[in-house]
Queue: 2 jobs
Job 1
Amino acid sequence: MLDKVQELQQYVNSFSATSLEELEDFRISFLGKKGKVTLLFNEFRNVPNDQKKEFGGQLNKLKKSAQNRIIELKQGISSSQNHSNLDIDLTAPAQPYELGSRHPISIVKNEIIEIFSSIGFSISEGPEIEDDWHNFSALNFPENHPARDMQDTFFISKEIALRTHTSSVQVREMENNQPPIRTISPGRVFRNEAISARAHCFFHQVEGLFIDKDVSFGDLKQTLNYFTKKMFGDSAKIRLRPSYFPFTEPSAELDVSCTICNQKGCNVCKYSGWLEIMGCGMVDPNVLDNCNIDSTKYTGFAFGMGIERIAQLKYQVNDLRLYSENDLRFLDQFKNANY
Ligand code: DAH
């Protein structure tokens, strides 16, 4: 008897129908008053007691799957019939494909990469989950520096955190290569900040590093001047202001002349005519030594910029949250970008 149930089960599994009539025949022959399944149910009382449980279970399963199969096939048949009834105009012009666009962060990242590649910088990447050494200690952060604080950093454990900047990649590059090193490192970084128009818990940076014999602050200035003009146009001017970073000495902040008001004064540059776009400086000898590079032989410069910040100035995006909301009305506006 069980064999019979299994045989019917196999039939149900492989049954298919192309018309509603065929399906109705199947229903009657299986589930109708004299259908195969119904007859088996009538046999139930003749099954020995110790087999009743298994037989009953299998039989119920068979009935269920026959019912489901009918529903499934019915849907298939009616949807294909609907199609054939559709009033299709075969002469209508085709719907054009909607072209997607690159994300503005990718566009700006690619443009930065292109500019630095053209003057000999390689591209390097590092992990987003980073250890204390690469994110802080090797970069000369004092033990109690506020940037290590829980408020800024997403810690995974005491020693492991989400990287707070791409400067961690310059450490990895120096540890694994000897000068000359000339590389940029684009990537995503994380900070434990409340999300608002002006701050986000993740954003993107490009780190730059150049180490060789006799690299000077003049080289830094010329390189960044070249970059700024390529990025914002020949009329863009730069200004370097003294600043502090643990990993550079001396350190500076680089401002670009306001691309929005041409230095006439506007609310983006807060009527100063200048916009801050990156931090930079000469790599601190302690950092070189930490990464096994002889600081008596080599010098170098480094810089780091936020991609969102550059995109904000290029495209006048005034709310950081737009970059990660995937709103097509925002993303659609970047269709004409070249990168
Ligand atoms: N890591 C810094 C930050 O996240 C940016 C930076 C400043 C990078 C100066 C550098 C540098 O390489 O020299 O704010």
Job 2
Amino acid sequence: MNGINRQIRLAARPSGLPDDSCWSHTEEPIPSPGPGEILVKIRYLSVDPAMRGWMRDRPSYVPPVEVGAVMRALTVGDVVASNNEAFPVGSSVAGVQGVQEYALSDGTDVWAADTALAPLPAWLNTLGIAGLTAYCGLVEVGKPEAGETVLVSGAAGSVGVHVGQIAKILGCRVVGIAGGPAKCAYLDELGFDGAIDYKSENLYAAIGRECPDGVDVFFDNVGGETLDAALAHINLNARVVICGAISQYNTTDIEGPKNYLALLIQRARMEGFIYFDYSGQWPSMLEKLAAWSAEGRLGSRDDIVPGGVEMFPEALLRLFSGDNFGKLMIEVG
Ligand code: NAP
């Protein structure tokens, strides 16, 4: 196929928020698939807080993105040329194909995104990283019981809204922490039992007010002071699920939990997880997520930035300012 493949590459590692100097915009000819390969035209790419971690040169759950490499990103797209029977031309796939317009795959690092079941953006949202992360962290790590109180931070974000809605489906009382009145009103609309605006309220007092019987499961997306405030309210045998710590991603001076002795006093458990450790269970999880979504019990807004891969540097920053409202992704032109 003739044409140009536009890409965003990591040009330098950031200190603090990643500015324009971290990125280079490159163009290459669209590659041709070799034997067994497919060529994917990327339609949407996922913008995720974890990308900030992938830019750091330090040991993590995946290797860092090398300086000069195309930035790693989850993607969904259409197969436009194929030498692989499993992925014919016209089918759609999800994968980790990077911030670019086209990518090759040998079929081992992509999976079918059935657009008869849900439109492509859903495969980055409820049927993708957002829904699966919420399910893995809440159900497999948090193990909530009906009647228990689940508190979630980053609650109006793509993972957070799924956590709250799944916890409601499981019969829990759910309280969310989010930034600003619009996001808190959204939590009310979704059926959360309580919403705390951390930007205008004292978190310690507000958690006490909204969780009068204490917190049985705390699903943390934020870390720092939010984690400390939640630890001050955990119940006996509580589960603290460490999903993320977005308040700490742009600093090297990471704030640890001052209130960790609450874990001792309450004989509680704090456990981190990465959603792809549960990939063997994704098919059965996806069945549940798709069914709840079809029943109208589970959903999340898509926050789609138009304008193609060039929008990536600016879009990434929206996660850290809280300007995204829903699952942030870029429509690749
Ligand atoms: P998101 O919540 O849709 O977007 C990020 C949100 O974080 C912002 O909208 C903002 O919401 C909030 N935020 C940003 N800076 C903050 C700060 N300093 N203090 C408090 N809140 C802040 O993002 P997401 O994709 O759903 O990810 C949520 C979390 O899940 C992240 O920590 C991410 O790393 C983690 N995650 C983990 C896994 C895993 O496998 N463990 C997988 C996916 C994602 P407000 O406007 O409410 O402040």
